[in-house]
Amino acid sequence: MKSRVAWPFLLLFSSTLGCVSNRDETVEGTNSWPCYTLSAEKVWQLNTPNNERFDASGLLQKGNKLFTVNDRDPALCEIRVSENRDSGDIVIVPEIFTAAQLAKFSKEKSGRFDCEGIAQDSKGRIYYCEEGDRWILRFDPKIMDVERLPIDWAPVEKQFHRTDRNASFEGITIGDGKLFVANERQEGRIIVIDLKTLKILDDFTVRPTKTQMKDIHYSDLCWFDGALFAILRENRVVVKIDPKQRRIVAEYNFHAMEQQDDLAYRVMYPTSTMEGLAVDKNYFWLITDNNGWGRKAFPQDTRPTLFKCRKPE
Question: For residues 233-269, b (16+ Cβ closer than 10 Å) or e, as one string?
Fold first, then answer.
């Protein structure tokens, strides 16, 4: 048996030249924004259910609780940490995104559920983006069931990779009546959907400073206080985005923090392992998807890492 917790809720409640792009072309801009360096105020290694591999792929913060999802198992999980410990626990929340609730999709599903990102709306409904089949799944606590949202992706299909099922939906968040979904790469885009009509309103990308990359890689999104935040994994930064102007207004680099001797993971590719982001008034919270790899200093320890970073402003 996996460890579980009781169902507790209905509401989980330096300046340089930048450029932005719209749907059809890249526009060079003259806007500049402040650039900061993130450092960890506290770090936890997270014990996983049954000590099994856990590829943390999103963060949701409500109140003083943090939730995540394993991209190898769709169950919702709570992260339990305390300031006086260097390790924490990932505990499965029962009755949410269960095998029984997802069984109705089995005839249409190709492969396992690869759920990424977590969001929640004002009604307490929980959202995942499913990467393999480009689905948006929504759990409703009133009926204790899951639905697949009937979104027509035709307006943005030209951005989708035709064969790589892993170059797909990676992050999700909700703000200002809109659902924001990150298409990870090939091509990296942020897709904006009206939450009531489920119609696509827009798609765009933003480019951080000092990047030579044509394709920007996104690994999670978060909405806080009227702003959209995104992890740009290859650039190892979190960016704060003005969603109306579709432009970066601040940039936070976590490269040095992630590469500390006792924290850096062994990796197959030269990209960041950060795949979950939560933002509150005082902190950034970041969590790793280290794909079952251990840290360089502790190769047998394959637990994910949670970082608590005070906002440098």
Answer: bbbbbbbbbbbeebbbbbbbbbeebbeeeebebeeee
3 state DSSP class of 99: helix
User: Half-sphere exposure of 142 toward its Cβ, with a 13 Å CA cutoff?
Assistant: 5
User: Alpha carbon of 103 to those of 111, 135, 162, 235, 293: distances in Å?
Assistant: 13, 15, 26, 38, 31
Helix (H) or strand (E) holding 255: helix 255-258
Q: Per-residue pLDDT tens for 66-101?
A: 999 999 999 999 999 999 999 999 999 999 999 999
Find tokens 């003259």 and name the residue.
Answer: 30
- Give the model's pLDDT for residue 5: 52
Tokens encoding 203: 């798609």
Return d(Cα 46, Cα 80) in angstroms, integer. Answer: 9
Q: Pick from 208, 219, 226: which is nearest to 279 by CA?
A: 226
Q: Is the dihedral of CA 26, 241, 43, 120 positive or negative?
A: negative
pTM metric for this prediction? 0.90
> CA 149, 276, 156 angle in degrees (round to 5)?
40
pLDDT in tens, 247-298: 999 999 999 999 999 999 999 888 899 999 999 999 999 999 999 999 999 9
| Residue 242: CA count within 13 A, CB half-sphere | 10
Q: In this structure, are residues 232 and 239 in contact, taking their beta carbons and an 8 Å threshold?
A: yes
C-alpha of 29 from chain center? 27
Note the pLDDT tens digit of each residue in 148-161: 999 999 999 988 88
- Return the structure tokens found at 249: 């207004």
Kindly indicate the confidence band of residue 220, based on its pLDDT and cuts at 50, 70 and 90.
Answer: very high
